Amino acid sequence: NEGQTLRIRLVRYAGNRRLLVARDMTHIQKLERMRQDFVANVSHELRTPLTVITGYLEAMIDDEPDERCVVPLQSMQEQSERMRRLVEDLMLLARLESDEPNDAARVVDIPELVAQVVSQAKTLSGVEGHRFEVHIENTLCLVGVKSELFSAFSNLVFNAVRYTPAGGSIQVDWVRENETGLFSVTDSGPGIEAQHIPRLTERFYRVDAGRSRARGGTGLGLAIVKHVLLRHQGRLEIDSEPGRGSRFGCRFPESQLRSCKSAKAL
Ligand code: ADP
């Protein structure tokens, strides 16, 4: 029927026999779309009240408040900032999950974008002072949506800063490897136990929820990375071992790679 979605699989069983299995996905897809729309609408509706609250809080803090109010006001400001980040990430995820095509795709100057991400990560690292090592292949660019790639790469580098203890090392690479483009972030942080790795890109999945919240995480970072990569024919690679650090890689196929001359000409 028109508008109906079937998932068809060919299953081999009992030696050489084959079975064609058709599953009607229409209802599941409809529910999934309703979930996506609901999340997108709720996050959109929360944005305006949040802007008003933050505005008033800022004004009250600037206004030299009564001594007893300073700590509560600062705490309210921190929490509303956390909520703002959450709402922004939910809205971005809803946009990435929707079927809207990548019509803003063009050649993106990845060397420049990676340099920007690293510069912001150094600011985030601040006095904690991580050791950064950066390798960028300056002639290698990528077809894609700049803002989406920025979100994906910055989530990975900021995670490295957030989870790696002060003084640890963070290596950021953008290189050509075996006909693919590879962006990777390697840190000397705590590492992740193998059983958690397959679930890391689920929304709100955290190995240690308290630590994630304390470090300013929304729990949506790796879900965003996964969806950005899906929209760029990319693949996420995660290698990690407890006590030895982690490596998160974004691998892009040859078909997405371009020489940077075309990006600079824009
Ligand atoms: P969060 O906002 O909680 O960081 P993410 O989706 O970005 O959410 O990451 C999911 C979880 O993966 C984190 O809560 C953390 O437990 C783990 N994680 C992500 N990056 C790293 C890293 N570089 N080192 C150790 N653990 C990490």
TrEMBL record:
Keyword list, A-Z: ATP-binding, Cell membrane, Kinase, Membrane, Nucleotide-binding, Phosphate transport, Phosphoprotein, Transferase, Transmembrane, Transmembrane helix, Transport, Two-component regulatory system
Domain Histidine kinase positions: 41-256
Gene Ontology biological-process annotations: cellular response to phosphate starvation; phosphate ion transport
Listed name of the protein: Phosphate regulon sensor protein PhoR
GO molecular-function term, one example from the UniProt record: phosphoprotein phosphatase activity
Gene Ontology cellular-component terms listed: plasma membrane
Compartments, record wording: Cell membrane
Species classification: Bacteria, Pseudomonadati, Pseudomonadota, Gammaproteobacteria, Chromatiales
Function: Member of the two-component regulatory system PhoR/PhoB involved in the phosphate regulon genes expression. PhoR may function as a membrane-associated protein kinase that phosphorylates PhoB in response to environmental signals.
Catalytic activity line of the entry: ATP + protein L-histidine = ADP + protein N-phospho-L-histidine
Enzyme Commission numbers on file: 2.7.13.3
Residues of the full protein shown: 171 to 436 of 436
